[in-house]
Design a protein that fits this description.
Length: about 400
Amino acid sequence: MSNLFEEVHREYTLFRNRDALSPHYIPSHLPYREDEIRLLSQKIAPILSGKKPENIFIYGKTGTGKTAVTKKVLNDLNEYAERKGLPVKGLYINGRMYDSEHKVIMRLVKMLVPSAELMGYSTSSIYDMLMEDVDRRERRLVVALDEIDMVKRVGDLIYRLNRANDELERGSISIIGISNNPLFKDRLDARTKSTLCEVELVFPPYNAEQLRTILKERVEEAFHKGVVEEDAISLAAAYAARNAGDARYALQVMLRAGDIAEEEGAKKVGREHVERARRLVEEDIVYEMISTLPEQHRLLIAALASMIVKGVGVETFGKGKVITSGMLYSNYKRLAQERGITPVSDRWFREYLNELETYGIIEVHVAGKGFRGNTRLIELIPDAKKIVSLMERGVI
């Protein structure tokens, strides 16, 4: 009897190092982020002299290099500290995976003391273990919290880690917060804000030429020489430039294009593979982005998508039907009540609209002539039918 894998296993003929296109891969060179690398390193450097660096918050849209830059700086920090025998440690935690205060503090202890048995212990007990280890070993920590706005009750976590420095006698903890949302800090309570002495770094989107350079360098690592056509690289970069300058998007498209070409037995990756890959990647991005948003954000998107699919809206001359913020809020409240969820106030509803616009999921326009006051019109960027399909599958 033949083995099942005899049919599905094959040698990759196009890829040389497929991982080079992964979002988790940190290349030795990060084009167009030299200034950000230098500035972040300078802000962290005091830790090497026994001083506590300022907390740092990094903002920028998806795919602008925030994570890659932070990981590279922390990797170099750890390598240098180990070589010099310094009790300095850079730790990276993704808030999407560790999305509560308890999970983050537990992860910190496990990273520092892998043998620690933590199951069944309260958050306060695990925090005490963290403090004891930092103080006893005189550790100086830089904790990078990526997608920090995904952590539930994140204000409590920031407050606790920041105030830890008042209790420590021989160590310190500094925070690097990473978020796509420049309005993130506005949601923190006054108590948490008052403890933060932070530096802010904003990563601008890449333009088409920068994206082409980035993609070309990764393609040279990922594929065998001459496998990817220049037109394919240019097309993937152009699509990414239209998608808010998202380098991660460009890498995903090129990875998918390579897979499609492999499956077809093609000898080169061309424009047609990139075009097909783009459609698949956009579906993946919509699914990933929306399925991981907080509950109230998902409800708001679901309410908007259902209205669009049903053809609900205000009829206008020349624009067809449009959805006003007031109509959306009413439908959002109805949907929340149907699901047994307490709807947020009008003030928080407007805040969430701003955040979803920042994420690139909606666009908000001032209605202007023919509408009362400051009425706003809401436009959904992803395909509404795909969103409704996700609703039916229970994703949102």
